[in-house]
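To assess whether the prediction recovers the assembly geometry, we first specified each molecular entity separately, as shown.
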Amino acid sequence: MMSLAALVRARDAGKASPELMLALCRDAIARKDGRIRAFAHVAETAPAQAAGPLAGIAIGVKDILDSFDQPTAYGSQVYEGYQPRVDAAIVDLARRKGATIIGKTATTEFAFFSPAATVNPHNPTHTPGGSSSGSAAAVAAGMIPAAIGTQTGGSVVRPAAFCGIAGYKPSYRLLPATGMKHFAPSLDTVGLFAAGVVDVALFAALLTGRDLVPGDGEAPLDPATIRVGLYRCSQLESADPAMRDALSKAADLAASAGFDVGEIGEPEAMARAREAHATIQNHEAGLSCGSDLARFRDRLSGILTSTIEDGQAITPSQYDEARRLAKRGRGATRGLFGEVDILLTPSAPGAAPRGLETTGDPRFNKLWTLMGSPTINIPGFRDQAGMPLGIQAVARFGQDRTLLSVAAMLEKSFRT
Amino acid sequence: MMSLAALVRARDAGKASPELMLALCRDAIARKDGRIRAFAHVAETAPAQAAGPLAGIAIGVKDILDSFDQPTAYGSQVYEGYQPRVDAAIVDLARRKGATIIGKTATTEFAFFSPAATVNPHNPTHTPGGSSSGSAAAVAAGMIPAAIGTQTGGSVVRPAAFCGIAGYKPSYRLLPATGMKHFAPSLDTVGLFAAGVVDVALFAALLTGRDLVPGDGEAPLDPATIRVGLYRCSQLESADPAMRDALSKAADLAASAGFDVGEIGEPEAMARAREAHATIQNHEAGLSCGSDLARFRDRLSGILTSTIEDGQAITPSQYDEARRLAKRGRGATRGLFGEVDILLTPSAPGAAPRGLETTGDPRFNKLWTLMGSPTINIPGFRDQAGMPLGIQAVARFGQDRTLLSVAAMLEKSFRT
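The predicted structure of the complete assembly is given in tokenized form:
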């Protein structure tokens, strides 16, 4: 894989020009993407920018986000050949910071469940996860150092887990969502992918200008001051044995690394909030995608059509009740993060399932999307077949810097 | 003006067909819009729908919201002739409820400050207010019974006040914003216009299916149980004498109508939140409109260009600090609405200013947009020149039904 941090260091040391860095990615895409099918569109001639913190960094952008210079199909035949007039806010921001948008990465239809053609780089008979399938696979296959995706249920953290890379879903609206094809705006969250935690943290910092990574000479975090809670939610019982093993090992390794590790139960209000996710998502999808349904019903998949219809049948009272449950859940989440700093939980029930018909299950992700909590997939573990198993770390809303710093230390300990 | 409530009653009693109701609007537009210039586009042949709670209701949609069957220019030459593929969520919802989108109403450029060509129906040398200029003027001129607009600062309540109609800005995200040209997503709020409060409340109820208006046979609200607070914010001193008079009279009339009226001061945290509005708005505009600036700088107005540039110069720390002030303000607002149910405050510093170069001042509106509180312009007062003076009622987040019910009673008392 290509490390964004290593590329930036090489560039800043004058050892690699932005043009060379870009050429490496073009070459890798030409060699690999025929097999991986991570890209919906490749910008064959997009040049490197000479300046900016992301100069020379080729990024893939999930094709649910608008780009003025490349077609944007939202994973749907309805939008084949559609050419937006302006970039999504996050795409424009990446360009302003010097990045090159080297292509649009494959997404499930409207970032929902109907899969793209992308395969898992670790085994092409397995799903790469979704909905940000191409973004995760392109990074995992070593074609690009970084990519942008979105998450409404588990669409950043799950494909990152299945592909064995870092996938970071920031606090709600830390990254702008304007210019994405919205499905459920109160959940839709822009997220980032890179090879490892340090890479994705640097990507986030360079993209936003936020203080998200430790500065040179800054004293390292003392792990003894960080309370890490192994999150005993009821979903845990339904995880694969290999995943449950990995989570135990993760907790042990965190303790060995000096973190203050314990177990913590799931408050009832958070379990109930998780159940409210579908009502909120589908009601909002019924509104956001209502015009697509009215105009293009025959060209949408069955699962999308029925979800939009379901959503339109949800009454305002049912929606309001679900929002109340979410609000109570957020209160309980704040309480929980009074007791721990970081939660550890699986990123998915197990490794990437065999088959390309589904993109896997978001049961370990959707609560955090609804709570707005920052989460990250930490790669490092594998199952007996060698497929990646992802551990998810979660922090309190707004504590993205702590999340990224702790996750970087945990990743190191997982890999030793 | 056309009363939406009267039209719906006539239709339901079989006294007016949807076709006839639509024809009345077409005729009024043909006769009046050459002078008022409220419409950016008129759908000459859009038919009436036979069914749905809004069947026969012709509505104007602010041209900042996408429509699949009519060009959508966002008030900008950059988007002249632009034809979205799908409707904005609120437009699709209106169609599903039976409404006819009879045209797109004029907006300032990107719903910011550069004015449209629309004039004030009460005096064509005065601004209609903005940014939802055409929506307010089209209703006020009696061309259509209802219109949809948006508010980021004061773009619903202010033009409603200047045009002497009801303008309702619901609680944040009570109406879906997907498919609008976003300026500052955490502020951008879809709102509604109609001749009077009862009309706009009925419009909101029929559009959303929400329980927002008293049912038949429901006991009327007892005004003695409603605490109305005349809001003594510091802006009040800068309002025109005619407006300060109107506000005093409004408080007196509310007391005469039996409401429990008092005065209430502005908590410091709310005053500081108001000051944070510009930082939040401009930073978000710097992101949302960054691609427009990069691509079309020469075709944007000077005020828009400089605001986007300003926004891009605001650091994440400055933005976060402004968000913290807003959060504290929301806490103080919750506290305030423990003491009163409804606040009364001017909708604008005075009547519509003479001249078409500006659309007036949002100083009485932007706090409530930032707080997410539902607000409404109650028409009824006029200055010595006969120009409308608007009184704004504000309620706690989520208390839209109370706001609309109380505002309807106040409107009645203002008109007697």
